[in-house]
Amino acid sequence: MARRMLVAGNWKMHGVGSDLGEITAISMAAETENGVDVAICVPFTLIERAVAAAPGFAIGAQDVHPAANGAHTGDISAAMLAEVGAKLVIVGHSERRQAHHEGNAETAAKADAALAGGLDVVVCCGETLEVREAGEAVETVCDQIIASLPGSVDPSRMALAYEPIWAIGTGKVARPSDVAEMHAAIRARIAKEHGPEIAAQMRILYGGSVKGENAAELFAMEDVDGALVGGASLTADQFVPIINAAKN
Ligand code: 13P
């Protein structure tokens, strides 16, 4: 069975009530029957209003705590996210790994909590420029993703996102040959650890300066099953062309 493309937006720490019109516009463009799954992960404060602004459209969060509840000031649980209508959550983004010192084990625990709470997950991985220049990117990223996976690896409930850190928000996209090599290596490693069937169904997204202008080239690659988009997901004008590129 062919994998459905997934184009997910990550609004990061952007978005207030006056931006909800963008979500409505994106959801309307995504509604046409095209075989592409579309989602937007917004700040916690916007989840409930984004769900109301785009009924039936997949709204997600950008982080979740591994515990179901407890004394965790400032954190949020999967049940809280599900209650306000979130359908998915991003875990292990490099901005959380770097700024909040989150490691692979914590990322895996977050993914477990999300799945147990009824949310789908996007598990992120990616190398620094230093690691890429040392020629260690493929091995590093494959080790990172395997160690970040939840206990139950179900491709119908999750996707992986390869986001080279040096390509995030920089306008620098990884070379097509490097993306192709990395995605194929991740799939091969999933096959080795979790079996060929799971590997064949697992969606592997690319993230890092994806725009309307470069999306088609990325999506044409065999092992690229969509994108995780930061800056260009903030407006319908920039995000809809990426969705359209996934359709074709
Ligand atoms: P940009 O698309 O802004 O480079 O961000 C990528 C990203 O980090 C998505 O999670």
Overview of the structural elements:
- With 248 residues, this protein is α/β, with parallel strands linked by helices.
- It has a single domain (5-228), classed as Alpha-Beta Barrel (TIM Barrel), CATH 3.20.20.70.
- It contains eleven helices and eight strands.
- The chain has helices spanning 20-30, 47-53, 78-83, 94-99, 104-116, 129-133, 137-148, 176-194, 196-201, 212-219, 236-247, and strands at residues 5-10, 36-41, 58-61, 88-91, 120-125, 158-162, 203-207, 226-229.
- Strands 1-2-3-4-5-6-7-8 form an eight-stranded parallel barrel, surrounded by seven helices.
- β3 (58-61), α3 and β4 (88-91) form a beta-alpha-beta unit.
- α1 (20-30) runs parallel beside α11 (236-247) and α5 crosses α7 (137-148).
- The two termini are 18 Å apart.
- The chain binds 1,3-dihydroxyacetonephosphate.
